[in-house]
């Protein structure tokens, strides 16, 4: 006997990248803790079951969002500058200049997702706090390694402290992100970037500043 009723078709598909972009906007704007599953599914245009099937739970979705952010132009600019610029001074100056433009850009939420999303993580979500902390610490190691290489190559004076200098620039970058969240515009942030670069250690010849 034949079956009656509507035929069972394939589950409705969705654009995974577009859904991730919508989730990114929410996490970036509101932080991890304040973003609810209902808000996520509504913004992503999917049902809760589809979210769990495609991404796992909220923590897994957030981690995938952060990885997507790190590959995007607004999230990858630090690594790109370090790779493309021939001298450390030029690389760090470019990083701060680009942060001054990217962080207050009105086309997306202000600041840096990996910095701002960590400001309201609850105790029960310690795994997410540790995930973000590990990312920031890994970035700090990258800054330190570039500065240590610069010192070995004679670009930094021998009495400079690459570890402290890396921490200084990490703090400046995080502070610029927060200032953007608080309403600072590109002009203010560019002035901060210029002042920060004035702290670059002197004493031995270095390649000149970028144009």
Automatic annotation (TrEMBL):
Q: Which InterPro entries has this protein been placed in?
A: Homeodomain-like_sf, HTH_TetR, Tet_transcr_reg_TetR-rel_C_sf, TetR_C
Recite the lineage of the species. Bacteria, Bacillati, Actinomycetota, Actinomycetes, Streptosporangiales
The highest taxon in the source lineage is: Bacteria
Q: Could you list this entry's UniProt keywords, alphabetically sorted.
A: DNA-binding, Transcription, Transcription regulation
What Pfam families does the record tag this protein with? Answer: TetR_C_13 (PF16925), TetR_N (PF00440)
Species the sequence originates in? Nonomuraea rosea
What are the HTH tetR-type domain coordinates in residue numbering? 13-73
Name of the protein: TetR/AcrR family transcriptional regulator
> Which residues form the DNA-binding region?
36-55
């Amino acid at each position: 006997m034949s079956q009656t009723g509507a035929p069972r078709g394939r589950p409705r598909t969705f654009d995974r990248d577009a859904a991730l972009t919508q989730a990114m906007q929410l996490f970036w704007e509101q932080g991890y803790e304040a973003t609810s599953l209902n808000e996520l599914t509504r913004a992503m245009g999917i049902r809760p079951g589809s979210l769990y099937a495609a991404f796992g739970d909220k923590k897994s979705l957030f981690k995938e969002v952060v990885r997507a952010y790190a590959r995007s132009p607004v999230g990858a600019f630090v690594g790109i500058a370090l790779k493309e610029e021939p001298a450390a001074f030029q690389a760090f100056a470019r990083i701060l200049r680009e942060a001054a433009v990217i962080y207050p850009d009105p086309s997306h939420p202000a600041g840096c997702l990996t910095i701002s999303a960590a400001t309201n993580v609850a105790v029960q979500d310690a795994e997410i706090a540790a995930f973000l902390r590990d990312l920031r610490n890994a970035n700090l190691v990258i800054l330190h390694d570039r500065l240590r290489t610069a010192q070995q190559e004679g670009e930094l004076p021998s009495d400079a402290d690459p570890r402290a200098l890396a921490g200084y620039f990490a703090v400046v970058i995080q502070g610029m992100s927060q200032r953007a969240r608080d309403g600072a515009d590109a002009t203010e942030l560019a002035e901060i970037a210029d002042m920060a670069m004035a702290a670059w250690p002197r004493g031995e010849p270095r390649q000149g500043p970028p144009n």
